[in-house]
Amino acid sequence: MIQVVCAIIEHKGTVLITQRSSKMAQPLLWEFPGGKVEDGESETDALVREIQEELNLLIVPHKRLVPVTHTYSSSTIELIPYTCSLQSGNILLAEHQAYSWATIDTLLNFSWCPADIPIVEEYLQLKRMQL
Ligand SMILES: Nc1nc2c([nH]c(=O)n2[C@H]2C[C@H](O)[C@@H](COP(=O)(O)OP(=O)(O)OP(=O)(O)O)O2)c(=O)[nH]1
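Structure tokens predicted for 8-oxo-dGTP diphosphatase (131 residues):
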């Protein structure tokens, strides 16, 4: 199974979400940015590396949420989410089509990659408990 880490980057009451480009797998769907964990790499090292490469941002991972296993037509992934904070950098999109700093109450309005939906739901539940 392919392990994919993704970052829920929280900043000023919003979270960063990204739209996959037409050339990527799951084209034009929205996701939490991240990517595959390489051999010998920790989940959090992979996350920090991917966000630097894809978005030019330095992040700090915090809480690991519940991983989601999802089977797409060509492969099965384990998608492992972490809440993260932003340390520094300005967004430069290397691969994605678009990004949005989305407020919590708009998250369900986006067309998500299917594997992300349980993660969005868990995250919304966490946020409601914190209110
Ligand atoms: N990064 C990321 N990938 C996701 C999410 N949800 C989801 O289903 N995926 C899928 C899409 C891809 O099939 C796979 C991750 O591939 P990727 O293309 O983002 O990873 P990568 O940057 O390491 O890829 P590569 O081009 O180096 O192979 O996981 C998500 O929230 N974030």
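The longest helix spans residues 117-130.
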